[in-house]
Amino acid sequence: MPLVAHRPLAALDRLRAEGQEILDVERAHRQDIRELHIGLLNIMPDGALKATERQFLRLIGNSNRIAQFYVHIFTVPGVPRSADIQAYIDAHYENFDDLAAEGLDAIIFTGTNPVHADLAQEDYWPHVQRVFDWADKNVTSVLCSCLASHLALRHFYGIPRLRRANKLFGVYSHRVLDRSHPMLTNINTRFDMPHSRWNDVGAESFTACGLPVLVAGEESGVAMASSPDGFRQIYFQGHPEYDHNSLLKEYRRDLQQYREGNSGRAPYLPEHYFTPAGIRLANAYLASGAPISDFPEAALLEEVDVTWRDTAKALFANWLGLVYQLTHQDRRLQFMDGIDPADPLGRLRR
């Protein structure tokens, strides 16, 4: 079933304008349908905050028809904010303490742009630790996106992330390594996912801590892994939620920062993202020396091949379906109390 607009949010209005079904609270209450309450911890920087809301709301709303989805968006202190964005957060976001008191079924945890090599030095570190610790005891599953995965791995297992020589930036092919995992039911054995990161946690670090690697790529490394129980925490090092223009906008931003002297090296074009015609267009623009105001964003957007969206929908559908089963079909007690801590998803595997 669709998303429920239980709070005013521009992102929901935009999704409604795109044709996605959004229920008002009164209509939702008239339907005898199960509810799922999903937390969205959004610590993305100001420029990506609202886009990230839309991306995850769109995936939740499009991915499953099993329940009415109440998405509770919140953040934590310690992330630098402009006055305008802080006012927006104050008006539209919920309070974590209130959500903890009322309860959530699952949480999606986004990342941000870190300042320090050691994540434990970030101003938001103690606040995200508090959310992780609460969620570990009180929700069915936490799905971590990119930096959020590194935060979780640092907090729970002490795993440091390692700086790459070059930014991993583009859309990469991956192979499913555990076809029996319910998160990967009806997923192609090979699929694409966007990545955008300077740092990495390698497969050996996951396996050394007993964390199953579920999906990996030759160029990108680990794309998806889980906590030892298989589901309480899901780690993505990539961005299945990205819009078709996300990498393009990021490239333009990085190019502008380089030209303004705020970055020491020119950014690479995102790999495996543009058509051959798009690569020629981008290179012609760069060779021309034209100002950033002439960046051919609209033309380049026509030369983007979207090869990850269907898989992203299927992954989120599977995740939400498992949250639903473990929460509403008498499986939560089994899962949370650890009747079979080695394999809480065993009865759900194919």
From TrEMBL:
Marked site: Important for substrate specificity: S196
Pfam families documented for this protein: HTS
UniProt xrefs under InterPro entries: Class_I_gatase-like, MetA_family
EC number(s) given by UniProt: 2.3.1.46
GO molecular function: homoserine O-acetyltransferase activity; homoserine O-succinyltransferase activity
Signal peptide stretch: none
Active site: C146 (acyl-thioester intermediate), H239 (proton acceptor), E241
Pathway: Amino-acid biosynthesis; L-methionine biosynthesis via de novo pathway; O-succinyl-L-homoserine from L-homoserine: step 1/1
Assigned protein family: Belongs to the MetA family.
Biological function: Transfers a succinyl group from succinyl-CoA to L-homoserine, forming succinyl-L-homoserine.
Protein name: Homoserine O-succinyltransferase
Organism: Cardiobacterium valvarum
